[in-house]
Amino acid sequence: MKVSMERAALLKAVSQAQSVVERRNTIPILANVLIEAEGDTGQFRATDLDIEVVDKAPAQVERAGATTVSAVTLHEIVRKLPDGALVTLTDDSATGRLTVEAGRSNFSLATLPKEDFPVMASSEYASNFSIKAAALRRLFDKSKFAISTEETRYYLNGVYMHVSEAADGRVLRCVATDGHRLARIDTDLPAGAEDMPGVIVPRKTVGELRKLLDDDDMDIAVSVSETKVRFATPDITLTSKVIDGTFPDYTRVIPQANTKRLEVDASEFAKAVDRVSTVSSERSRAVKLQLDEDRLILSVNAPDSGAAEEELAVAYGDERLEIGFNAKYLLEIASQVDRENAVFMFNSAGDPTLMREGSDESAVYVVMPMRV
User: Fold this and answer.
1) pLDDT at 216 over 90
2) Per-domain residue ranges for the chain?
3) pTM, full prediction
4) Do domains 2-116 and 127-252 have the same CATH topology?
């Protein structure tokens, strides 16, 4: 194999591949990237056995072929090469080495046989549809903060993507929760997604997917089966196993009867929570909200470190209420608001609180209160 590629194109392809590779591997081949050169394309494939990413880039192929080499080492080399360099990769099967040349730089890397590289079996996908990158990014970006990190509740370690009924028809919905907060985000149902099985997309896959979604107008091809999900752009294909488990009935924890309504400038609210929580104890991070007519007092009282209080002008016309929250949860939810105002709906100091972005019903957040 002998192939030449422009450094920027090679770096983009290798960086996407190496980010999937686990740093600590008991199986040496899983630390490698499979390089395949044919026609006018170089293809880079990496896997951790749960996720597989394939990245294509334009190349001048002098001699077609394939080999595998350490993904992290190749990425580091290409990253440190000068901009605009033409990089030539030459595989010598006799020595079991891959030579990387660019200008006056020359590297020789150990390879492993391409036959040992595990390729994820392609499955029959029950549902195939296309969705704009901007819509898909919104679904996952606004929900991923609520993914649980508790390994025992493995079925919460991802984002539940499924088709659901909403007030104005069927929608494509993403939900994540860790038991303390919940995010439910909707978008218009794409053509072809009507019969999609509901799947739990793992946390790592959500992180890798985010790198594919920078171009708002790009169409992302999505394929879903009971066991796998695939996201594809013209250059990159990301295939992942889904979490084998049942996502809980989240509709039961979304409060329907909360009537006390607070409307507040989202960014001012987030800044005020951030300021007063500076003195809160690291363990509880508790902040108290005192609501009275058109005013909100945020306060923290931490016997070990001090106290803080800040008043905000808000729109609130219901009875007086005192309620406590984990400051981190409030900040994460407030930071999801793209519009100017956040609307909080309360019931009592012990009940879950609902939050929306203005009058927009397509993004709903729930946060559990805490005693303060």
Assistant:
1) no
2) 2-116, 127-252, 255-367
3) 0.92
4) yes
- Bridge-partner residues for 22, per DSSP? none
Q: How far is CA 32 from the centre of its chain?
A: 24
Task: Please answer whether residues 81 and 7 qualify as being in contact, where contact means their C-beta atoms are separated by less than 8 angstroms.
Answer: yes
Class of domain 127-252: alpha beta
Query: Could you give the angle at the alpha carbon of 370 between the alpha carbons of 144 and 151, nearest 5°?
Result: 40
Check if the beta carbon of residue 349 is closer than 8 Å to that of residue 308. no
Q: Say if residues 61 and 42 touch (Cβ distance below 8 Å).
A: yes
- Amino acid in the structure at residue 180: H
The CATH superfamily of 255-367 is DNA Polymerase III, subunit A, domain 2 (3.10.150.10)
Per-residue b or e along 190-208, where b marks 16 or more CB atoms closer than 10 Å to that residue's CB: beebeebbbbbbbbbbbeb
Rounded to whole angstroms, the Cα distance separating 211 from 136 reads 12
Sheet holding 286-292, edge to edge: 306-313, 295-302, 286-292, 321-326
Q: What is the pLDDT of residues 29-86, one digit of tens each?
A: 999 999 999 999 999 999 999 999 999 999 999 999 999 999 999 999 999 999 999 9
Q: Residues 134, 128: contact at Cβ < 8 Å?
A: no
Is residue 287 within 8 Å of 298, Cβ to Cβ? yes
Class of domain 2-116: alpha beta
State yes or no: pLDDT of 206 exceeds 80.
yes
281, pLDDT greater than 80: no
Which residues partner with 311 through β-bridges? 297
Condensed to tens digits (0 to 9), the pLDDT of residues 329-366 reads 999 998 888 878 999 999 999 999 999 998 888 999 99
Please give the Cα distance from 193 to 223 (Å, whole number). Answer: 9
Helix 7-18 crosses helix 71-80 at what angle (to 10 degrees)? 150
Digit-coded pLDDT (tens) for 86-102: 999 999 888 899 999 99
Residue 83 C-beta-side C-alpha neighbours within 13 Å: 0
Please check whether residue 192 is in contact with residue 126, taking contact to mean a CB–CB distance below 8 angstroms: no
